[in-house]
Write a structure and sequence with these properties.
alpha+beta, two-stranded parallel ribbon, globular
């Protein structure tokens, strides 16, 4: 995922990006991703089964 961010895409599609991470690692990744989207106006489509995580990301 980080490699794709360096390419500066307009949209990033992520399929279960935190599925193999610990809860702490998942929080760190989503926080970094959210900060990046706000700074660069990056659109993100996250495919996940964890509604609570996606809901927190959208706040």
């Amino acid at each position: 995922m980080l490699k794709q961010l360096f390419l500066q895409p307009e949209i990033l599609i992520l399929d279960e990006p935190t599925s193999v991470l610990t809860p702490q690692e998942a929080d760190e990744v989503l926080t970094m991703l959210k900060e990046r989207t706000l700074k660069s106006h990056l659109s993100v489509l996250i495919i996940t089964h964890k509604f609570s995580r996606s809901h927190e990301f959208c706040r």
